[in-house]
Amino acid sequence: MQPVTTVAEREVGALLWAGRDPRVVLQELKELGVRCGQIGVPGEMPLEGAATLWRDAIGAEAFVVTAMPVAYVGESYTDIPTVQQTVGFMPEATRAEREERTRAVSDFARELGVGSISCHVGFVPEDANDPHYVAVRDMVRRLCDHCQANGQTFALETGQEPATVLMEFIADVDRPNLVINFDPANMILYGTGDPIEALGIVASKVGSVHVKDGHWPPPNVPGALGTEVPLGQGDVGMERYVAKLKEIGYKNALVIEREVEDHQQRLHDMRQGVELLQGLRQ
Ligand code: MG
User: Fold this and answer.
1) Separation of 234 CA from ligand 1 center, angstroms?
2) Alpha-carbon dihedral of residues 3, 9, 11, 16, nearest 10 degrees?
3) Which residue of 42, 71, 129, 186 has the fewest C-beta atoms within 10 A of its own C-beta?
């Protein structure tokens, strides 16, 4: 049987993280009523030998992995200062090991026939002369080139900077396979701007999306993040989000993400999210 590699227009998918038996992960996703989605790769997951297991499971379950988000050991999303200190490529001490890890995940994804990897690069400084800005920009260039050789796009997850700053950074990196994984809830959680307006600004670079919901940060609590909630219960406005995706001509999968800690709760909320989106995607 030929592997299935394409998705229908705005097909509903979901995101779960690897690090468990691949068959179990894919079966959980299929029980949500989807046959495509993203498989995240946690920082602590050993990659040795994983490709064979994952390739077999993907084939057996006829699942389409549309992208692989990459996370790193030592990242924490407790509040905005902690994100600044621990997430992505901004922390200098872990930059080299995270570059190496990203290359390794790109190679892992290539073995599974996955055409995109994504990550949070962290808070990119707005000053293009800042030495950290230059280091991160050059690192993203090298990673884009690595992904290009693997036939992949490299996607930046939105949220930690306003859309205009992100677009300036992308223009400066100047690599054709650099795209955005747009996450509307992150714009709200980090208080970086109205997500629908932001989607209009970054439209030409959107390669994939998350469908996630959330509330704005509480007022008068410096550094606080907003709260992520099940689809339809937050401030994104799912109807206007999907309408805007149609307006910009987005056709790739609508990948539901739910970050609640309890796994059964996550699956429950995602299942409801699938139902909600099935009614909106057409
Ligand atoms: Mg996301």
Assistant:
1) 15
2) 70
3) 129
Residue 207 vs residues 85, 118, 146, 176: alpha-carbon distances, Å: 27, 10, 18, 12
Residues 270 and 168: their CA atoms lie apart, in Å, by 34
State residue 251 phi and psi, 5-degree precision.
-125, -5
Q: Report pLDDT digits (tens) over 38-86.
A: 999 999 999 999 999 999 999 999 999 999 999 999 999 999 999 999 9
CA 186 to ligand 1 center in whole angstroms: 7
* pLDDT tens digit sequence for 155-193: 999 888 899 999 999 999 999 999 999 999 999 999 999
Give 59 Cα–ligand 1 centroid separation in angstroms: 26
Neighbours of ion ligand 1 (CB under 5 A): 183, 210, 257
Contacts of 41 (CB under 8 A, 6+ apart): 17, 18, 47, 68, 69, 70, 71, 105, 108
CA 2 to centroid of ligand 1, rounded, Å: 30
How far is CA 232 from its chain centroid? 19
Taking the centre of ligand 1 as the mean of its atom positions, its distance from the CA of residue 95, in whole angstroms, is: 21
Nearest to 277 by CA among 230, 250, 220, 239: 239
For residues 177 and 44, what is the distance between their CA atoms, to the nearest angstrom? 27
What is the CB-side half-sphere exposure of residue 14 using CA atoms within 13 A?
A: 30
Distance 1 CA to ligand 1 centre (A): 32
42 DSSP assignment? -
Give me ligand 1 centre to Cα 69, in Å. Answer: 9
- Centre of ligand 1 to C-alpha 48, Å, is 26
